[in-house]
Every structure is written in C-alpha cells, then in structure tokens.
Amino acid sequence: SSELTQDPAVSVALGQTVTITCQGDSLRSYYASWYQQKPGQAPLLVIYGKDNRPSGIPDRFSGSSSGSTASLSITGAQAEDEADYYCNSRDSSGKHMVFGGGTKLTVL
Amino acid sequence: QVQLQESGPGLVKPSDTLSLTCTVSGGSMHPSYWTWIRQPPGKGLEWIGYVHSSGNTNYNPSLKSRVTMSVDTSTSQFSLNLRSVTAADTAMYYCARDSDFWSLDHAFDYWGQGTLVTVSS
Q1: Residue A41's closest chain B neighbor by CA?
Q2: What confidence score (pLDDT) does residue B104 get?
Q3: What is the mean pLDDT of chain A?
Q4: B positions 43-72 inside 8 Å of A (CB)
Q5: Are the CB atoms for B50 and B31 separated by under 8 Å?
Q6: In this structure, how many other beta carbons lie within 10 angstroms of the beta carbon of residue A50?
Q7: Which residues of B touch A49 (CB under 8 A)?
C-alpha cells in the first residue's frame, strides 16, 4: 500500500470546481507535486511546490496543503481535464519518493 | 526543451536482467537527478530511483537489492538494470528528470514517452 492515499475516482460537472486530495504523514513536512495522465500518454506535471504551475498549464489548476493533506483543485473543469491524477512526495523516511494510488477524474 | 527517449528490449525472460537506456537531448545533464518510474498495466506509478549526474544513486527500498542505475554524461544517457525479473516487473518504464530531489519545489518536469517491458518466457 502507498504512503500517499488518494480517492480512486472523482467526478465533476463541466465547468464546475473539483478538488482531488492526497493524504500522508510526510505531507506535513513536504509539498506534493501533481501529475495528469491521459490514456496512452506519459504523465504531465501540473502542480509542484507550494502552488506552482509549469509553463503551459492553465491557471484553472491550483494546489494547496493543510496538515497531512495536499489538494489539487480545478476551477471550471473542462472536458480535456478528464484523466488520472497522481500525487507525489517523499516517503516517511524523507529519503525516497512515493506516488499516491491515483484518482480517475470524470468530467460529466 | 529537454527531451527523453527510452530504449531497450520489449521482452525479457523470467530470472533475466531488464536493461533500459534513456537518451537525453535538448539540454545538459548537469546537474540533475535522472529518474526511472514504472507503471504496471492498469495500475499506478512507482518510483524506482534516480542517478544523479555525478553518479550518486538512490533507489526504492523495495527494489534496491535488484536495481543498478548509471549515467554517462559524455553520451547524454543514463541506464537502468533490474535483475532477476518476474512477471510482476511487467510494466511501462518511464525515464524522467527530477528538477531537484532535495528541494521543496521538487518535481518530475520532463518525461520520456515510456517503453513497455513484458516479462515472459
């Protein structure tokens, strides 16, 4: 089992806001990074650090953190946001990386 | 724009060694943490480990006894060897760049397209 826990599936109506969460004790000390993966494609970095977006990532994607929970929010979800989302951070030792189990986002 | 490309056999026999190479283009290999990540069919991502451009390595504890990574900055390549493979090692293998492993702003910012490795006799 992963040291980072994500809900397996989340759905959102087109144009609405959705939050995907990632829970783990290491998140009290370290930020999470977030990756979007569409079928047949490599993961794509969407959020890292406190709330940083790589160039080319729409500003409807944002990140936050509180206690042992990191969150990825999509404000005004679009059909093209339908994908699997993975969080990543350090493990409990702080020396290695782990991924959450992933959340499948469906845009209705 | 950094680009990564994995290469290696798509089929490996059980108990053999899986060997993959990642070629980096469009940027310097210094200083970065060059990473391998895998994804079994239909499942989630697993961090295998990294090799720093200096040659230092850091492996997933669950795979450490079977993994070796190396880097050759003269050819802009880094490699993964995974020994004694079983069917459980069947996965898409990705190479990626870790912007700065020890930074709070750590991220895997560039990825290869992935290569599927099947372990079967």
Answers
A1: B113
A2: 86
A3: 96
A4: 44-47, 49, 58-61
A5: no
A6: 11
A7: 104-107
Cα–Cα distance measured from residue B120 to residue A99, given in angstroms and rounded to the nearest whole number:
27
At A45-88, the pLDDT tens digits run 999 999 999 999 999 999 999 999 999 999 999 999 999 999 99
Backbone φ, ψ for residue B111 (5° rounding): -130, 150
| DSSP-derived 3-state class of residue B88 | helix
Q: What is the pLDDT of residue A1?
A: 54
Please indicate if any CB of chain B lies within 8 Å of the CB of A102.
Answer: yes
For residue A49, the model assigns a pLDDT of: 94
Q: Is the dihedral of CA A92, A94, A95, A98 positive or negative?
A: positive
**Residue B104 with chain A: CB contacts under 8 Å:** 30-31, 49-50
Nearest Cβ partner for B47 among A30, A44, A99: A99
What does pLDDT average to over chain B? Answer: 96
Indicate which of A55, A72, A97, A98 best probes the interface with B, i.e. most B CBs within 10 Å of its own CB. A97
φ/ψ region of B64 (left if φ > 0, alpha if ψ in -120 to 50, else beta) reads alpha
